[in-house]
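quick one before i forget lol
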Amino acid sequence: MDTIDKTPKTRLIKKGAEASLFLSEWHNRRAIIKVRIPKSYRPAALDMQIRSYRTVHEPQLMHEAKTAGVATPLIYMVKVPESTIIMQYIEGPQMKTLLNSASKQHRRSLCTEIGRNVARLHKDGLIHGDLTTSNIIQAPDGTIYFVDFGLGEKNMELEAQGVDLHLLKRALQSTHFGFWEECFQAVMSGYSAVIGEVQAEKVYEKISEIERRGRYVEERKQ
Protein backbone atom coordinates (compact mmCIF):
# COMPACT_ATOMS: atom_id res chain seq x y z
CA MET A 1 0.00 0.00 0.00
CA ASP A 2 2.74 2.43 -1.04
CA THR A 3 0.18 4.99 -2.23
CA ILE A 4 -1.05 5.57 1.33
CA ASP A 5 0.62 8.35 3.28
CA LYS A 6 2.66 6.78 6.06
CA THR A 7 0.89 8.15 9.12
CA PRO A 8 -0.08 6.84 12.54
CA LYS A 9 -3.64 7.81 11.62
CA THR A 10 -3.89 4.90 9.17
CA ARG A 11 -6.11 2.30 10.76
CA LEU A 12 -8.29 -0.62 9.85
CA ILE A 13 -11.96 0.32 10.27
CA LYS A 14 -13.68 -2.68 8.73
CA LYS A 15 -12.66 -6.19 7.75
CA GLY A 16 -15.31 -7.76 5.54
CA ALA A 17 -15.55 -11.05 3.70
CA GLU A 18 -14.45 -9.45 0.43
CA ALA A 19 -12.27 -6.51 1.44
CA SER A 20 -10.60 -4.56 4.24
CA LEU A 21 -11.25 -0.83 4.66
CA PHE A 22 -8.58 1.50 6.01
CA LEU A 23 -9.07 5.11 7.08
CA SER A 24 -5.97 7.07 6.15
CA GLU A 25 -4.67 10.17 4.37
CA TRP A 26 -3.90 10.62 0.71
CA HIS A 27 -2.19 13.85 -0.34
CA ASN A 28 -3.37 15.56 2.85
CA ARG A 29 -6.96 14.42 2.39
CA ARG A 30 -8.77 11.88 4.52
CA ALA A 31 -9.37 8.81 2.43
CA ILE A 32 -10.74 5.30 2.50
CA ILE A 33 -8.48 2.59 1.13
CA LYS A 34 -10.34 -0.53 0.06
CA VAL A 35 -8.13 -3.59 -0.38
CA ARG A 36 -9.65 -6.77 -1.75
CA ILE A 37 -8.41 -9.82 0.12
CA PRO A 38 -6.97 -12.87 -1.70
CA LYS A 39 -9.02 -16.03 -1.23
CA SER A 40 -6.90 -19.12 -0.60
CA TYR A 41 -9.72 -21.49 -1.57
CA ARG A 42 -9.66 -20.19 -5.16
CA PRO A 43 -6.95 -21.02 -7.72
CA ALA A 44 -4.50 -18.10 -7.70
CA ALA A 45 -5.11 -17.08 -11.32
CA LEU A 46 -8.89 -17.14 -10.90
CA ASP A 47 -8.66 -15.24 -7.63
CA MET A 48 -6.59 -12.48 -9.24
CA GLN A 49 -9.01 -12.31 -12.17
CA ILE A 50 -12.03 -11.90 -9.88
CA ARG A 51 -10.37 -9.31 -7.63
CA SER A 52 -9.05 -7.34 -10.61
CA TYR A 53 -12.47 -7.31 -12.27
CA ARG A 54 -14.22 -6.10 -9.13
CA THR A 55 -11.53 -3.49 -8.47
CA VAL A 56 -12.12 -2.00 -11.93
CA HIS A 57 -15.88 -2.54 -12.01
CA GLU A 58 -16.76 -0.87 -8.69
CA PRO A 59 -15.39 2.61 -9.58
CA GLN A 60 -17.14 2.36 -12.95
CA LEU A 61 -20.47 1.72 -11.22
CA MET A 62 -19.86 4.58 -8.79
CA HIS A 63 -19.17 6.93 -11.70
CA GLU A 64 -22.35 5.82 -13.47
CA ALA A 65 -24.30 6.28 -10.23
CA LYS A 66 -23.10 9.90 -10.14
CA THR A 67 -24.26 10.35 -13.72
CA ALA A 68 -27.66 9.00 -12.65
CA GLY A 69 -27.85 11.64 -9.91
CA VAL A 70 -26.78 9.57 -6.89
CA ALA A 71 -23.93 10.89 -4.74
CA THR A 72 -20.98 8.51 -4.30
CA PRO A 73 -17.43 9.04 -2.98
CA LEU A 74 -14.84 10.49 -5.34
CA ILE A 75 -12.32 7.96 -6.62
CA TYR A 76 -8.73 9.15 -6.13
CA MET A 77 -6.81 6.16 -7.46
CA VAL A 78 -7.30 2.58 -8.61
CA LYS A 79 -4.39 0.13 -8.37
CA VAL A 80 -5.51 -3.03 -10.13
CA PRO A 81 -2.39 -5.17 -9.42
CA GLU A 82 -2.89 -4.52 -5.70
CA SER A 83 -6.70 -4.84 -5.86
CA THR A 84 -6.87 -1.45 -4.18
CA ILE A 85 -9.20 1.55 -4.51
CA ILE A 86 -8.43 4.87 -2.81
CA MET A 87 -11.52 7.02 -2.44
CA GLN A 88 -13.00 10.00 -0.66
CA TYR A 89 -13.84 9.61 3.02
CA ILE A 90 -17.42 10.76 3.62
CA GLU A 91 -17.93 12.50 6.95
CA GLY A 92 -21.25 11.87 8.64
CA PRO A 93 -23.36 9.17 10.26
CA GLN A 94 -24.44 5.97 8.61
CA MET A 95 -28.17 5.80 7.96
CA LYS A 96 -28.17 2.82 10.34
CA THR A 97 -27.40 5.20 13.22
CA LEU A 98 -29.34 8.18 11.93
CA LEU A 99 -32.68 6.41 11.54
CA ASN A 100 -32.56 5.16 15.12
CA SER A 101 -32.15 8.67 16.54
CA ALA A 102 -34.30 10.69 14.10
CA SER A 103 -37.84 11.90 14.70
CA LYS A 104 -40.65 10.14 12.84
CA GLN A 105 -40.97 13.01 10.37
CA HIS A 106 -37.22 13.14 9.75
CA ARG A 107 -37.07 9.35 9.30
CA ARG A 108 -39.78 9.52 6.68
CA SER A 109 -37.96 12.31 4.85
CA LEU A 110 -34.67 10.38 4.88
CA CYS A 111 -36.27 7.15 3.69
CA THR A 112 -38.18 8.93 0.93
CA GLU A 113 -34.90 10.34 -0.37
CA ILE A 114 -33.27 6.91 -0.14
CA GLY A 115 -36.10 5.55 -2.29
CA ARG A 116 -35.60 8.33 -4.82
CA ASN A 117 -31.91 7.48 -5.08
CA VAL A 118 -32.55 3.76 -5.51
CA ALA A 119 -34.99 4.60 -8.31
CA ARG A 120 -32.37 6.78 -10.02
CA LEU A 121 -29.98 3.83 -9.98
CA HIS A 122 -32.58 1.39 -11.29
CA LYS A 123 -33.73 3.75 -14.06
CA ASP A 124 -30.17 3.72 -15.37
CA GLY A 125 -29.84 -0.06 -15.07
CA LEU A 126 -27.64 0.03 -11.96
CA ILE A 127 -28.02 -2.47 -9.12
CA HIS A 128 -26.28 -1.62 -5.86
CA GLY A 129 -26.08 -5.23 -4.69
CA ASP A 130 -25.74 -4.55 -0.95
CA LEU A 131 -28.46 -2.06 -0.05
CA THR A 132 -28.34 -1.77 3.72
CA THR A 133 -28.54 1.26 5.99
CA SER A 134 -24.84 0.72 6.77
CA ASN A 135 -23.99 1.58 3.15
CA ILE A 136 -25.81 4.92 3.11
CA ILE A 137 -24.25 8.01 4.74
CA GLN A 138 -25.55 11.54 5.24
CA ALA A 139 -22.84 14.19 4.92
CA PRO A 140 -22.89 17.39 7.05
CA ASP A 141 -24.42 19.34 4.14
CA GLY A 142 -27.35 16.90 4.04
CA THR A 143 -26.25 15.02 0.91
CA ILE A 144 -27.03 11.31 1.04
CA TYR A 145 -24.17 9.16 -0.26
CA PHE A 146 -24.39 5.54 -1.36
CA VAL A 147 -21.19 3.60 -0.71
CA ASP A 148 -19.80 0.09 -1.30
CA PHE A 149 -20.79 -0.94 -4.81
CA GLY A 150 -18.55 -4.00 -4.59
CA LEU A 151 -21.42 -6.40 -5.29
CA GLY A 152 -23.15 -4.12 -7.79
CA GLU A 153 -23.89 -4.77 -11.44
CA LYS A 154 -25.47 -3.39 -14.60
CA ASN A 155 -28.88 -5.04 -14.90
CA MET A 156 -32.27 -3.76 -16.07
CA GLU A 157 -34.17 -6.92 -15.10
CA LEU A 158 -37.12 -6.69 -12.73
CA GLU A 159 -35.74 -9.59 -10.69
CA ALA A 160 -32.50 -7.73 -9.94
CA GLN A 161 -34.38 -4.58 -8.94
CA GLY A 162 -36.68 -6.60 -6.70
CA VAL A 163 -33.75 -8.34 -5.02
CA ASP A 164 -32.04 -4.97 -4.44
CA LEU A 165 -35.07 -3.54 -2.63
CA HIS A 166 -35.86 -6.82 -0.88
CA LEU A 167 -32.41 -6.68 0.70
CA LEU A 168 -33.08 -3.13 1.89
CA LYS A 169 -36.42 -4.22 3.32
CA ARG A 170 -34.74 -7.08 5.20
CA ALA A 171 -32.10 -4.68 6.52
CA LEU A 172 -34.82 -2.35 7.82
CA GLN A 173 -36.68 -5.25 9.44
CA SER A 174 -33.60 -6.53 11.25
CA THR A 175 -31.91 -3.26 12.23
CA HIS A 176 -34.89 -0.92 12.63
CA PHE A 177 -37.59 -3.41 13.63
CA GLY A 178 -39.56 -0.89 15.70
CA PHE A 179 -40.45 1.28 12.71
CA TRP A 180 -39.35 -0.64 9.62
CA GLU A 181 -42.80 -0.56 8.01
CA GLU A 182 -43.08 3.22 7.97
CA CYS A 183 -39.50 3.41 6.67
CA PHE A 184 -40.09 0.98 3.82
CA GLN A 185 -43.37 2.67 2.88
CA ALA A 186 -41.44 5.95 2.62
CA VAL A 187 -38.73 4.26 0.55
CA MET A 188 -41.32 2.94 -1.91
CA SER A 189 -43.07 6.32 -2.01
CA GLY A 190 -39.83 8.03 -3.05
CA TYR A 191 -39.04 5.18 -5.44
CA SER A 192 -42.43 5.49 -7.13
CA ALA A 193 -42.11 9.27 -7.46
CA VAL A 194 -38.97 8.87 -9.59
CA ILE A 195 -39.46 5.60 -11.46
CA GLY A 196 -43.22 5.90 -11.98
CA GLU A 197 -46.16 4.19 -10.30
CA VAL A 198 -46.53 1.43 -12.89
CA GLN A 199 -42.89 0.30 -12.67
CA ALA A 200 -42.86 0.71 -8.89
CA GLU A 201 -45.88 -1.58 -8.60
CA LYS A 202 -44.15 -4.21 -10.74
CA VAL A 203 -41.06 -4.06 -8.52
CA TYR A 204 -43.21 -4.24 -5.38
CA GLU A 205 -44.94 -7.35 -6.74
CA LYS A 206 -41.52 -8.85 -7.48
CA ILE A 207 -40.45 -8.20 -3.87
CA SER A 208 -43.56 -10.05 -2.67
CA GLU A 209 -42.76 -12.93 -5.03
CA ILE A 210 -39.20 -13.14 -3.69
CA GLU A 211 -40.56 -13.27 -0.15
CA ARG A 212 -42.98 -16.06 -1.07
CA ARG A 213 -40.14 -18.06 -2.60
CA GLY A 214 -38.13 -17.59 0.58
CA ARG A 215 -40.98 -18.80 2.77
CA TYR A 216 -41.47 -21.84 0.52
CA VAL A 217 -37.81 -22.79 0.87
CA GLU A 218 -37.98 -22.43 4.66
CA GLU A 219 -41.11 -24.58 4.82
CA ARG A 220 -39.43 -27.28 2.72
CA LYS A 221 -36.54 -27.38 5.20
CA GLN A 222 -38.86 -28.14 8.12
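fyi Strands lie at 11-15, 19-26, 29-36, 75-79, 84-88, 126-127, 136-138, 144-146, 153-154.
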